């Protein structure tokens, strides 16, 4: 379970890699399912793929944007074991693994008050906001995202009106002002791969 938690959360592997079982759709790094399908077809087992992944984490290929030793020690072993178990295999995780991941805050609603709408980033490092939904009245609104996560994020909106705040790191706040019109919006993080991995939600203005 720790390997999957790290893959989709603090290690942010899922922001760069597609892995069906983890529900991630990153496109900056190799698609891990496609990368290991041929190995599966040739009869290579989980342990072989685990070893390859562990070595790649320790020493990424030349020119890779992934830093060496993104995770270390037991965490590296756990991430590699999870990828080795599921990469290139059809279907979804089952049992306890199925309970790991997804935006646990998707049904929580942030409400605009006094012209301010606050939607914090998940401080755990998961690619998610603390709210999956938001409501606001039409008019001038300041939309802000405090970021206590160890990962850089921002917040933006797409819909009848578009707007975005700057990408910021731990301890800072991404914010912008917009004059909202009635309608349905998507709020999301613009860092590549983050929205695809689940860092987005719906904003209703009425």
Description:
The protein has helices at 2-8, 32-41, 46-58, 73-86; strands at residues 18-19, 24-25, 109-111, 116-118, 133-136, 139-146, 156-158, 163-164, 173-180, 183-188, 200-205. The chain has 206 residues and is an alpha/beta fold. The protein folds into 2 domains: 2-99, Orthogonal Bundle (Cytochrome Bc1 Complex, Chain D, domain 2), CATH 1.10.760.10; 109-205, Cupredoxins -  blue copper proteins (Immunoglobulin-like, Sandwich). The strands form 3 sheets. Strands 3-5-11-10-7-8 form a 6-stranded mixed sheet, with no helix packed on it. A hairpin with a 4-residue loop joins β7 and β8. α1 packs across α4 (73-86) and α3 (46-58) packs across α4. The model has no long low-confidence stretch (mean pLDDT 90).
């Amino acid at each position: 379970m720790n390997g999957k938690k790290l893959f989709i959360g603090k290690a942010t592997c899922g922001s760069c890699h597609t892995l069906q079982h983890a529900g991630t759709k990153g496109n900056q790094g190799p698609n891990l399912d496609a990368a290991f399908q041929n190995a599966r077809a040739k009869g290579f087992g989980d342990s072989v793929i685990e070893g390859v992944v562990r070595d790649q984490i320790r020493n990424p290929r030349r020119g890779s944007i992934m830093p060496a030793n993104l995770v270390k020690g037991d965490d590296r072993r756990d991430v590699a074991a999870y990828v080795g178990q599921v990469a290139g295999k059809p279907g979804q995780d089952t049992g306890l693994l199925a309970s790991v991941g997804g935006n646990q805050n998707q049904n929580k609603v942030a409400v605009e008050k006094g012209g301010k709408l606050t939607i914090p980033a998940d401080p755990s490092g998961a690619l998610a906001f603390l709210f999956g939904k938001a409501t606001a009245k039409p008019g001038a609104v300041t939309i802000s995202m405090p970021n206590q996560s160890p990962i850089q994020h921002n917040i933006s909106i797409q819909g009848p009106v578009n707007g975005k705040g700057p990408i910021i790191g731990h301890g800072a706040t991404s914010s912008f002002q917009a004059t909202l019109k009635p309608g349905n919006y998507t709020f999301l993080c613009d860092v590549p791969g983050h929205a695809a991995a689940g860092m987005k939600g719906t904003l209703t203005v009425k």
